[in-house]
Amino acid sequence: MTTIITTNELSKTYPGKRGRGGPVEAVRSVDLEVAGGEIVGFLGPNGAGKTTTLRMLTTLLEPTAGEATVNGFDLRRDAVNVRRSIGYVAQAGSSYPLAIVGEEIVDHARLYGVERSVAQARTTALFAKLNLAGMEKRAVKTLSGGQRRRLDIAMGLVNEPPLVFLDEPTTGLDPQSRANLWEHIRSLRDDLGTTVFLTTHYLEEADALCDRILVIDQGRIVAEGTPEALKRRISGDGVTLTFDDAAQAASATTVAGAFPGAQDLATEGSTVRFRVPDVGRAIPSLLRELDASGVHLTDVEVRRPTLDDVFLSLTGRSLRDDSAA
Amino acid sequence: MTFFTETWIVFARSMRLSLRNPTWVIIGLSQPILYLTLFGPLLKPLAPALGTANAWQLFVPGMLVQLGMFGALFVGFGLIAEYRAGVIESMRVTPASRTALLLGRVLRDVLVLLVQGTILTVVAIPLGLRAPVGGVLVALLVVALLGAAFSSVSYALALNLKSEDALAPLLNGVAIPLLLLSGILLPMTIAPKWLQDVSDINPLKHIVEGVRALFLGDFGGSTTVWAFALTAALVAAGTWYGTSTFRRESS
To answer: Which is more confidently placed, B184 or A74?
Structure first.
């Protein structure tokens, strides 16, 4: 398989401002490789360096150190060829509120050297796939937030690039549109062999859409792998047991503590939490033992590891807290 | 694809956006007329004191230079709005020449200025303006070049500052002294000596004098040649600042 993106210690440091502390290392020596036809996701909290890395790879931001090759072109020496061979959907949008939708996307395509008639045909096709059919004559400002986001995505794809960068592509989309867009991104890969590099702080998105995930935190890549492989790093599934009172929870804690393979045991009021490998096989015998000890179970919850658990175990912080804040 | 095509795409897009905003068209066209009708008559009784037979030959060139400067200096606000909408970044990620992204917009501004300047001059004729056609046409060319210089500077400042709140005081801080020391409204010949000396360092003052000379039919005099040279220098400096800002990777 061909390598589409390679970076070597790519870094971006913003100089400190007077009275506002020292320099900020937004991206620290990132080494990554993306193969052709992959959907790779950059997963991390806000401020982790996802957008900064993307802006460097799309030639919008000059790296302070390190190198990168995109589609075979050197990022620093051959920026124009890099631009020619990529599509980019920014987080901030890409069209002017007073402009006309169809004109905005056709002009964008023409700046890539695409003929007007070809650009119009591509627009029609993209709009049909992205549920924007018939929107060409509307002013950008009359579109809903979700429609506008889908217009951004259409603009990023209208030059039919072999590699497309999507910065938080589904932010502001309702669940239905999000699922549609995932479908469209998958079909880019499956039908056209397009390589997709996206950033997201949605765990579900990274899990459902990405072939491979790069977990980034504080400017560093802290882990990478398929969603499955990352989740396998978490030893065991989470079990939460709830009882009528704290006394019973205390007895259950003793049972759970002696249970084979149980770890990360924590008791909180009438609730007991722990992890156990292969929960499907463990649960019947666990319940029998609890029964034998005479405690009365009111609720049991079993949870497979999520990417959030992966992030938590890698960084000690939860991604969900971040996205909720 | 050629640099020309890219410039044309950016120019046509900007022009469409300008024409689609009728408020802008009305204000842009009415302002010169307001100056002519509401300020021009004040100069008429002053004509002998200003050393001219036809006050419009003094006033209209001043208005044209003011148009070239003020009309162009504030175009940066539009760019900040585009930047905020993500348009600038989405254009910068295309392979189009960075200079074309600037030049297409500057050409739109120059065309708008030429239309406004022509209207201003034509409206002044029934009011009493008399000037040789050739001189007026060359004067409009000077105004267009001046507009190109100031609009480039305005775009570069906008892209560097990225905030209306920072751009507005800066532009006003520069424009007002430039205007007052240019002799645009009243010629500097009636100023006290010290004020004349201060105004001598303002290139716009010499350009205004040159444009006034053009309205009197003087094409080759030293005043006119000075005005051409200073305009050329301003265009060179303005477009250099503009293109170097647009070319920088991280702006």
So the answer is: A74
- Kindly determine whether residue B94 and residue A111, on different chains, have CB atoms separated by under 8 Å: yes
Do A204 and A214 form a contact (C-beta atoms < 8 A)?
Answer: no
The interface predicted TM-score of the complex, written ipTM, equals 0.89
- Is A325 exposed, middle or buried, given 0-12, 13-18 or 19+ CB atoms closer than 10 A? exposed
To the nearest 10°, the Cα dihedral for A15, A19, A22, A27?
A: -50
What are the chain B neighbours of A159 within 8 Å (beta carbons)? 94
The H or E element that residue A141 is part of is: none
Residue B6 in contact with partner chain A when CB distance is under 8 A:
yes
CB contact under 8 A, B91 and A108: yes
Query: What's the CA gap between A56 and B230, in Å, rounded?
Result: 40
Domains and CATH numbers, chain A: 3-85+161-231 (3.40.50.300), 235-304 (3.30.70.100)
Task: Determine contact: B126 vs chain A, CB below 8 A.
Answer: no
CA distance B234 to chain A (A): 29
Q: Do residue A110 and residue B95 have CB atoms under 8 angstroms apart? A: no
Chain B, 89-108: which have a CB under 8 Å from a chain A CB? 89-96
Other residues' Cβ atoms within 10 Å of the Cβ of residue A19? 5
- Tell me the residues of chain B between 230 and 249 that have a Cβ less than 8 Å away from chain A: 249
Local structure of A189: helix, strand or coil: helix
**Which is more confidently placed, B51 or B63?**
B63
Q: Is B19 on the interface with A (CB under 8 A)?
A: no
Secondary structure (DSSP) of A227-255: HHHHHHTS-SEEEEEEESSHHHHHHHHHH
Q: What is the per-residue pLDDT across A254-298, written as a single tens digit (0 to 9) for each?
A: 998 888 888 888 898 999 999 888 888 888 999 999 999 989 899
d(CA A30, CA A220): 6
Residue window 214-243, chain A: list those with CB within 8 Å of chain B: none
> Can you give the residue ranges of every domain in chain B?
3-247
pLDDT digits (tens, 9 = 90+) for A27-53: 999 999 999 999 999 998 888 999 999
